[in-house]
Each structure stands twice: as C-alpha cells, then as structure tokens.
Design a protein that fits this description.
Strand order of the largest sheet: 3-2-1-4-5-7-6
Number of helices: 10
Radius of gyration: 19 Å
Strand content: 5-15%
Distance between the termini: 9 Å
Structural class: alpha/beta
Shape: elongated
Order of helices and strands: EHHHHHEHEHHEHEEEH
Length: 237
C-alpha cells in the first residue's frame, strides 16, 4: 500500500448512507401518495420495494435494463405485488423518489472526518455506478463535492463497474497510474474485482468486520470503519 497517490471512492454505502437516506425518501413517498391503503404499513412497502429494486439493479449493472425503465419499473412491480398496479402512480413515485432521495444528507460514520484527513495527503476521486445528475447532487448537497477532483459515474462513462473501461477512464481523467491508486468500496465484485482487473490497489469497506485484516492478499486491505483506513494509510506513509 506504499506509494499511494490517488484514492478513488465508491459513493453509495461507502460514503453516503444509502439505506438510511433511501428509506427516509421511501417513507415520505408512502405518506405523500397514501400508500397505506394498499400496504399494511410503511415497512411492508419499503421491504417489498427494496427486494425488487435489488433485483432490477443487478440487471441494470449487466446492461439488461435501461435507466429509464428501472426508475419506474421498481415501483410498478412493488405496486403489482400489493394488487394496485397503476402506471401513472408508478411513474410519479419514481419521479418523487429521484427528487427526494438525493436531498437526504446522512453520511456513514466518520466520512467527513476521513475525507478531511485524506485530502491533505492524496488526490481524491469518485467512481460510482449511478445516475449522473443524482450522484453529483448528493455530493453537492452533503458538502462533499469539494474533496473530489474527478467524479466518474457509470451514467456518464457509458460503462458500469466492474467493467475495466470505467476504471481506465477514471484513471485517465485523474492523470493517475493504476499502481499508485487505491479503490475504496463496499461491493466486492464492482469495486474490488473491478479495481484489481486494472492493477489498482483495493480497500474493501466491510462494516461487518471489527478488525483490520491487511494480510489476506497483496494489494488488498479490509476495513470495518473509516478510521481504520486512515490509520492504515498513516502507517504506510
């Protein structure tokens, strides 16, 4: 991990607290559209939506579902399961969620402190599988945008992680060499395998673990908290 000059971060579930922010927007949608007439409670709606959304995002990452279809279909399929299919409501729900979700500002623990510390020593960037306008708004709304020199979304790049082409595009725009770059992310396939395929070092952000394990594979560290990444990089400088 020595000689790291550039750090590339995933955004959702690595810096931005996707689950908390998404559920807040879904709860707002549940109340706004009066969905209690079709669901037992808000958590039933949220759980059904999350399961369907995960399935559709897996297809989106494989290029089997278009962005415009995903935005509406995930709500349409949720309504279908409740026996209340309505294309206009599904479309309005999709628009409402896309508008409200990025406005939420919850970050994962110590995110701001970590970025402040690392910004003094490294060039910081973002590589995210997300919609361009949404991901940029999240960064600006949370006051994180000034930390990052290059922000690459799958939407703007035309490729999704773990496709090596999105990583090469990010490295080129950042004027960075893979051997001096570290990718930090929570998704093993998208972030870790993708970064490894182009020769970048990798940090697996895995909050389920409690102790730093830096001996599993060369060029890979695993952290359960952002403070552990700070401490590890300090030890390598």
């Amino acid at each position: 991990m020595k000689n790291v000059q550039h750090i590339f971060f995933d955004l959702d579930r690595t810096l931005w607290d996707f689950e908390t922010n998404s559920r807040e927007a879904l709860l707002m949608a549940y109340e706004h559209f009066g969905l209690q007439q079709w669901f037992d409670d808000s958590m039933q709606f949220i759980k059904k939506y999350e399961a369907i959304n995960d399935q559709l995002w897996a297809l989106y990452r494989k290029g089997q579902v278009e962005k415009s279809v995903l935005r509406t279909k995930r709500f349409g399929d949720t309504l279908k399961e409740a026996g209340c299919w309505s294309e206009p409501i599904a479309r309005d729900l999709g628009d409402f969620y896309i508008m409200e979700s990025p406005k939420q500002k919850k970050l994962l623990p110590s995110t701001a402190e970590m970025l402040q510390e690392l910004n003094d020593h490294y060039e910081l960037h973002i590589i995210t599988n997300g919609f361009d306008e949404v991901q940029h708004f999240k960064l600006e709304n949370c006051g994180l945008d000034h930390y990052f020199d290059v922000v690459i979304t799958s939407d703007s790049a035309g490729y999704k992680k773990p496709d090596e082409r999105i990583f090469f595009q990010a490295l080129t725009k950042a004027k960075a060499e893979a051997k001096s770059s570290l990718m930090v992310g929570d998704d093993w396939n998208s972030d870790i395998i993708g970064a490894r395929s182009v020769g970048m070092k990798q940090c697996f952000y895995n909050p389920e673990i409690k102790l730093l394990n830096d001996k599993s594979e060369e060029g890979l560290i695993e952290v359960g908290h952002h403070d552990q990444l700070i401490d590890y990089l300090k030890s390598q400088r």
